[in-house]
Automatic annotation (TrEMBL):
<dbReference type="GO" id="GO:0006511">
    <property type="term" value="P:ubiquitin-dependent protein catabolic process"/>
</dbReference>
<keyword id="KW-0788">Thiol protease</keyword>
<dbReference type="InterPro" id="IPR001578">
    <property type="entry name" value="Peptidase_C12_UCH"/>
</dbReference>
<dbReference type="InterPro" id="IPR036959">
    <property type="entry name" value="Peptidase_C12_UCH_sf"/>
</dbReference>
<dbReference type="GO" id="GO:0004843">
    <property type="term" value="F:cysteine-type deubiquitinase activity"/>
</dbReference>
<feature type="site" description="Transition state stabilizer">
    <location>
        <position position="53"/>
    </location>
</feature>
<feature type="site" description="Important for enzyme activity">
    <location>
        <position position="148"/>
    </location>
</feature>
<dbReference type="GO" id="GO:0016579">
    <property type="term" value="P:protein deubiquitination"/>
</dbReference>
<keyword id="KW-0963">Cytoplasm</keyword>
<dbReference type="InterPro" id="IPR038765">
    <property type="entry name" value="Papain-like_cys_pep_sf"/>
</dbReference>
<keyword id="KW-0833">Ubl conjugation pathway</keyword>
<keyword id="KW-0597">Phosphoprotein</keyword>
<keyword id="KW-0645">Protease</keyword>
<dbReference type="GO" id="GO:0005737">
    <property type="term" value="C:cytoplasm"/>
</dbReference>
<feature type="domain" description="UCH catalytic">
    <location>
        <begin position="1"/>
        <end position="193"/>
    </location>
</feature>
<feature type="active site" description="Nucleophile">
    <location>
        <position position="59"/>
    </location>
</feature>
<keyword id="KW-0378">Hydrolase</keyword>
Amino acid sequence: MDPELLSMVPRPVCAVLLLFPVTEKYETFRTEEEERIKAQGQNVRSSVYFMKQTINNACGTIGLIHAIANNRDKMNFESDSTLKKFLEDSLPMSPEERAKYLETSEAIRVTHESSAHEGQTEAPSIDEKVDLHFIALVNVGSHLYELDGRKPFPINHGQTSDDTFLEDAVEVCKKFMERDPEELRFNAIALSAA
C-alpha cells in the first residue's frame, strides 16, 4: 500500500478487490455503519450494478461480478460469453433478483466450479465456515463505491477520479486494516488495463 509500490500498478485501475477477515470488530462496525446510513441516507447512482450474496462462500465470485459489471464499458467480452449474457440479462433486475438469478444460473455455476478447481488451493465447500470475505471497490460516475453482497446496499465513499481511484481505494482498504490492527489476513487485488 506504499505510494512507491502503487506507482508500479498498471493504469488505469478499474476496480480493487479486497480480501479481509470477518471479525467481531468488523461485524460491530458493519452494523453501526448500516444504521448510520439508514438514518442519514447517502447518494448512490442508479447506474451502480449491485447484487446481494445469497450463496455461501461465493464472495469472490460476487466481488468479480461487481468489478466487471461496473466496468462493462472497458471490457471486451467474447460474443458467446456466459458472463456477458448474465450481466445483460440481470441489468434491469433488483439486487435480490440478481442474487436469485445467480443461484439458478447453470452456466455460471459450471464456470465457477471449473475455475475453483483450477486454482492452487482447494476451494472451500459451500457449507464450510469461512472467516474471510471479498468486496469490490469501484469507480462509478466519479464516486468510489464499496460493493459487498452481505450488505443491504452499496457504500458511497465519496468522490474519486480515474487518476486517483487506486490511491482512494487504498485509503478505504487501510480503514479496514485499522479496525483490526492485530490482523494480518488482508489482500488487495487491482484490476487494471492489460
